Amino acid sequence: MGRWTRRAFIAGGSLLGGGLVIGVGGVLFAPNRISVKPAASGAPQITTWIEIAPDNAVTVIVPHCEMGQGVHTALAQMAADELDADWNLVRVREAPALDEYANGYPVRVFFFDPAIAAMAPRAADYGTYRLARFVGLQLTGGSSSVRATGDLGLRVAGAAARAVLIQAAARRWGVPEGECEARLSSVHHRSSDRSLAFGAVADEAASLPLPENPPLKPREAWRIMGKSLPRIDTPSKVDGSRVYGIDTVVPGLLYATVAAAPVFGGKLVSVDEAPAMAVAGVKQVVRLDDAVAVVADSYWRALKGLRALKPVFSDGGNGAVDSPVLASRFATALSTGEGSTLTHTGDVAAALAGAAKRIEAEYAAPYLAHAPMEPMNATVRVADGRCEVWAGTQDPLNARDTAAKACGLGPSLVTMHNAMPGGGFGRRLPFVMDFIDQAARVAKAASPLPVKLIWSREEDIRHDFYRPAALCRFAGGLDASGRPVAWSARFIGNADENAAVPPYAIPHLRLASDKLDSHVRTGSWRSVDHSQHGFFVESFIDELAHAAGQDPWKFRRALLPDRHRAVLDLAASESGWESPPPAGRARGIALVEAFGSIAAEVAEIEIDAKGGLRVRRVTAAIDCGDLVNPDIAAAQIEGGIMFGLAAALYGEITLDKGAVVESNFWDYEVARMADTPEIAVHFVPSHGPRGGLGEPGLPPIAAAVANAIFAATGKRIRSLPFKNHNLSAERLRWSEPSPA
Amino acid sequence: MQYTLSVNGRQATVDVDPDTPLLWVIRESLGLTGTKFGCGVAACGACTVHVDGEATRSCSVPIESLGGKAVTTIEGLAPEGGRHKIQQAWIDAQVPQCGYCQSGMIMAVAALLARKPAPSDDEIDGEITNICRCGTYPRIRRAIRALAQG
To answer: Using a CB-CB distance cutoff of 8 angstroms, which residues of chain B are in contact with residue A637?
Structure first.
């Protein structure tokens, strides 16, 4: 990353020409010049846009979707601060789905060696599952937008724009630039006390060459960054006016719904269309390779038509695979051979053999569905040799390309209208856009009429790209003083070793993994591999702490680097770790570094007489570097905790006869109000490297709760979700009368 | 079948199958898209509207069963151009993330507070059973507490 300076984002000059300038009215300010074109092969460009209209309105064009993470507001804050704009005049527009706005470039620059960045075409970001997982799920995601696009793109754009605005005003006045400054969307000349609004000089400024390396503001000069400004999108989200993909209305719209082969890998063998066609309003039954869709004049009639069908699907040879079969395959894989070594420092075998105490344990995490509130949907019109798509996705470019492929059209003939997604969490990432593919194929069959394809919730739960299940076997060794000397982790699943590395100083460390393929479709789920390994690693280190007879907080802190220890200590002090919990409660602690941020959480729980678990309070501490918007940051941590808690309490996708058993929120339970603890989020005042926020709040919570259950009951929970464990006999240890 | 219903104080006539859920009448026939589809089985509450003032999951109310009852959707919660105090409380607490569930959430809370202006935490837990996958629950509680304190 070091060799990539901000210069790279400006050096490109006017590469794109005016033809791609979009937007209506106003002066398009410095549109295409803050861009870079690393390769001639149609490779990515980051083009950060700032428009300033004659009425002084500033529009920041953000190349990320707003799926709840607050990124439209946060990125606008970054651009506006460097621009010295008046925040009240700032608007945000999401960049259209055009290659020129692809944000994969800064993401890649951020994560990869620049040499790789220069060579790899954009598709390489997500062209392989492995690579995609390494990047995280950040084509749009709170975990990288700010630190990649924001720091490397939009701040620079704002600073460059400010420079030419000052220059333009100074020229008009005939005074040296150095005597002028920008303030609240105006340029001021100090000695003559004159002012010109940005809008008044934007035209001239737009014709000036942009500075190649505009200085960014030092932290002390931030006026808009670092403030908890209200989110730009909030008002439209409390009155029903916010339009999501599912709200798309176009003239002549038809509606469709779909049933895909229940067993992944299965195909549509046959279907008698007659029962659906007999339903009033049904227009068409569309046979897809692995699914059948019904098109009607309303969603309800399409659904009635679909329910009337008895499609025959093949099972792809997977019809006998159920959860017990998968579990035994996992267990067998874990017991065969040594696994492929990911990391080995020291000599783990010798260290374990020589350890004063040796602890072994096996941990498991299930498949999970994303279940965002807005079911999968897309509206597509195929007509006159062109295709239009309306949908909320985490990558409108991949949505466009998916539709193009499905329709047999070139991407340039497809127009993608990216709506605001009603949740994503990884389900709307590139290369898992089966709903776009289906909608395009159905629309092609219904051409020229537009079709809105809406999945039922049952279709969503049963045809997700699931968080992979994982199994992990640990062996740990303690020396005579209780210090851990060896840590061996061997796991199944497509896990990323980075997520499995304990942050603790343990001299002998071995991580090994076994890949196990199954027919279950898997994908990226909020926090990706950290979701399983956060639970595994932080539970097992807790086991070592108890085996050493030490306080779990003190045990951890002695083994952590300074930055991590500060986070752990903050969580401990804010939770009152060193004072006993209120009667009937117990606490557990966990710390995970993920997506560049360090998060520690203390969970305070209660277990009632019937074994009912209630998480009462969660105290979180985070080091993610400087904050752009502390309140949005806190909301992301709260959301991560709740998403992780929902999974830890209830989340489990099981299989029977090759197909997913769960179907809707009544059997795929998620957290509700009654499951919600008091959550307090504390940020370490840190100027360290900027970390992500959309995901890091999630990984510690399952372990923090499990560790609290252990503190309360002495029972170690080694598999999720908690609902599968009977805690009724596990009342708080100290709530029982002590023997006389 | 033709049905005449009162939505947000206005009469509307729609021509739909008798078993069509109120949700789809509201969204597709009347074009009021603020009410959301989440599960179709009354499990998530994204489709919550008021039927004669009561919080009702519209995905599971066939239009034929509605009778002459008055429907209020999120678009009709506040007088036109205005903002209901719950909507303002939601802004003050910066509740929404993706926002998809919030129409239903706000309608559920509005019905609760109309009956119980100062619900206890247990009452909130028991009565607000809508699902939010972004995990805005702590802020929802904060907003309700603020409203309860007036």
So the answer is: none
